[in-house]
Amino acid sequence: MTAALLLYTPYNQADPGGASPGKNNNPGAVHNRPPPAQTRQKPPGDFYRYDDRFHHNRYYPRPGYVAPYIPGHYQRIVYHDVPYFYLSGIWYRSAGAQFQVIAPPIGIFVPILPPYYTTIWLGGATYYYANDVYYVWRPQSNGYQVVQAPAGAESQQLPTVSDELFVYPKKGQSEEQITEDRYQCHVWSRNQTQYDPTQPPTNLSAAEASQKRDDYQRAMRACLEGKDYSVR
User: Fold this and answer.
1) What is the DSSP letter of 43?
2) Backbone phi, psi, residue 126, to 5°
3) Is the pTM of this model over 0.70?
4) pLDDT tens digits, 149-193
5) Sheet holding 66-67, edge to edge
6) How far apart are CA 139 and CA 142, in angstroms?
7) Is the CB of residue 134 less than 8 Å from the CB of residue 147?
8) Which bin fits 103, alpha (ψ -120 to 50), beta or left (φ > 0)?
9) Residue 224: pLDDT above 90?
10) 165, 179, 200, 223: least CB-packed within 10 angstroms?
């Protein structure tokens, strides 16, 4: 199941590495803009890769890319006394006054999934996939843990179901405004339908889960259209 949901909370946007959002603190850097969130259309530059595993079909900056700052509402997560930074399924570590795209360490937790992810079922377990990273829900920790790729995942054709909403700004809203509006609509839709697509469904039959998902999608569409977006 492929879910498209920009799910953010208002984290501090101050740059923890000393750089300032919206400002290039290293004018001599080759790349003087941070990578955008994952997208279906290839951004400019040769430092993006296309992730089509499990029909994920998104572009991400390649590991090793160095950005002058992290755009938007990122999360700072400390793991084994090392700070990591997480935004839209992209992971960073400080590189002086800049930030380098990395693969996250196995075992690190995040409170929310990336905005675009693919749910796969293998060996009786549920995994969430995005940007070459596999996540597993750990209820005892109330979070999603980065894990090794499950055995057999790379060699099997696993079915996926699209839940994606395509959202287009009618009034030229910025990427940051789109992110904020989608999060607000997610919260409203979740409260209206008592269904959260980022959480594993419990005590629901397949038919009930499908109905709840449809109700949630309708609520999201109505909310976003009320904020001047075209939704498909």
Assistant:
1) P
2) -105, 130
3) no
4) 988 776 555 544 445 677 788 988 876 677 678 778 888 998 999
5) 66-67, 98-102, 90-95, 82-87, 75-79
6) 5
7) yes
8) beta
9) yes
10) 200
